[in-house]
Amino acid sequence: MSETTPSLTALTATQVAKVLSAAGGRRITEEMIHADIDAGAPVNPDGTLNLVHYTAWLAKEMAGGD
Question: Is residue 21 included in any domain, yes or no?
Answer without folding.
Answer: yes
